[in-house]
Amino acid sequence: MNTVNMSFFHNGTQWIARDEDMEVAAPSLTDLDGKLREEVRFRYTPSQGARFTVNLDFDYSTIPHWMIQYHPYYMHRRLEFDY
Amino acid sequence: MAEEKKWYTGMFSTEDWWSFWIGLFFVLIGIVAAATGVDLSGWVIGFEKWVDISNVLQPDHAGMMSGISSLIVSYIIFTIATCIGAYFMGMDMKKYFWAWTIIFWLSAIVYVFSRHAYIQATSIERADFGIGWSLSIGGAHYIVALFVGLLIGNLAPKSFREFMYHGARPEWFIKIAIVFLGCKLGMKVVDSAGHALTLLLVGACATVAAYLLFWPLVYTLCRKGFKLTREWAATLASGISICGVSASIATGGAIRARPIVPVMVSSLIVVFAVVELVILPPVLTYTPWFNEPMAAASSLGLTVKTDGADAASGAITDQLMRTRAQEELGVQWEEGWITSAAVMTKIWIDMFIGVWALVLAMLWLYYVERRPDEKVQKMEVWWRFPKFVLGYFIAWIAVGVLGMTVIGGEAMDWGIHPFESTGRHLFFILTFTSIGLVTNFRKLKEENMGRLALAYGLGLLFIIIPLGWIIAYIFHNGMMPPTVG
């Protein structure tokens, strides 16, 4: 299955998605998704018609510690790129 | 590399799940004690009203051990339980242990001194204590604990305040207490099934009405009145109208807001919740709301915006109203019903957060921001579902069913009382101290907080509280707590 699991967070100015192999940053999520689509194309060279799923799990440790007790997580995004 | 999120993700790493595990662990001990007659639960420390300080500390099962021993045993057992949870949640164990220890003993000291008969004895009890006057402030220990926490949380050196954050977990403590409260309702089912089920159903109805009214009104106020952007308006609307910090985090995540948005909104919510916690219980007790105690308590679930502050304000209102009823009406209402009404509404609100977040996520991704590559996952509902609520209902059903059948009501009461009453009160006071510790009024001075605070204050004052009162009255009017005996 063509699945990539990454974590992501916001550093105050940009959304940053990363795993051990790649890191992508953009000021908006729409831009981030576009860059991720291209990065996946570059790294995995998907064949025509292939679908790549990118799971983005928000790095909850970047939320202030005192808030974490109120809710178990911030967000989890699933992107599906059709090539 | 991050792992894919599964349905069981977080089962051993979040406070929500650990309130489920710890709460049910002690409930199970209580049930085993009830079933076998072996005293596994009577060690839990209780704090009695006193004029002779040697009488203040009493284990729940009198005579099982001395009061001091009971306090030490309670400290050791609850410390081990919460430290296990803290370990699996990846907390700094050394800091958690010492901060928890300070909070526990500080709360115990406050509890002891605030239970003096001159402070808490009702006029009817004065003769028993041999005193001629008393302030008759039921729940004074909670109020004092809150103020002690606030003093430290706002005036202590920054390094100490930040250190105390490691152990000040009001949401965790209150969720454990709420699981214990499930036993209380289980016992109530044994005594009065109709009353408990009515409370469950009207709580659900009131919650749905609140969701459909509160959120659109506050969102419109923020957008039109305060010209806030969609991400700020939606997050703030959820924070004010649903369930405070958890709703603002859930909504922020659902609409893919920058994390700074729920962080700032949450800082505001915590401060306002404490203000409500101090003001609303006496307002409800000393106005005509006193004639509608269950409706009044339910309104707290709709208007006080964190689980901790809601349950805490319910507990104070419970104490204040029962004291007044005893003094002025000569009626002794059963303890816990008013708190239960406040918590029940909030539990329904909590359960719907996941559904609400899913609705908002679909609305935002498919219609507002239109990101074609992103898919909304239905599992959002489960991931955001408050797991302690499962513990609450399991405790309720287990105690209710077993108490009515194989174990019997009297035996169940003996086994479970140390947790459903005495232990619950202990975790309540830990919550009060912790709420004070994490509430930092300096947050209001932060940049850009003024407009948000104004929007929040006006929304609360002119939309949430009046409508919450009306909805609570419509669904709960005429309901009264059962009387003792």
Polypeptide structure, described:
The complex is a heterodimer of chains A (83) and B (485). Chain A has 83 residues and is of the alpha+beta class. Chain A has helices spanning 29-44, 65-68; strands at 3-10, 15-18, 23-26, 51-58, 76-82. Chain A is 24% helix and 37% strand. Chain A has a five-stranded mixed β-sheet, with helices on one face. Chain A is elongated and about 45 Å long. The model of chain A has no long low-confidence stretch (mean pLDDT 91). Chain B contains 18 helices and three strands. In chain B, strands 1-2 form a two-stranded antiparallel sheet. Chain B is globular and about 70 Å long. At the A-B interface, β1, α1, β4, α2 and β5 of A face α1, α8, α10, α11 and β3 of B.
- What coarse outline of chain B follows from CA principal-axis ratios? globular
Most residues in contact, chain pair and counts: A-B, 37 and 43 residues
| Range of helix content of chain A | 10-25%
What structural class should be given to the helix and strand makeup of chain B? mainly alpha
Strand content of chain A: 35-45%
Instruction: State the end-to-end CA separation of chain A.
Output: 15 Å
Main pleated sheet of chain B? 2 strands, antiparallel
- Rg of chain A over CA atoms, rounded to whole Å, is 14 Å
Gross morphology of chain A is: elongated
Which structural class matches the secondary elements of chain A? Answer: alpha+beta
Which architecture of chain A does the CATH hierarchy give at level 2? 2-Layer Sandwich
Please outline the major beta sheet of chain A: 5 strands, mixed
What's the tally of helices of chain A? 2
Uncertain ranges of chain B = none
What oligomeric assembly is this protein in? heterodimer
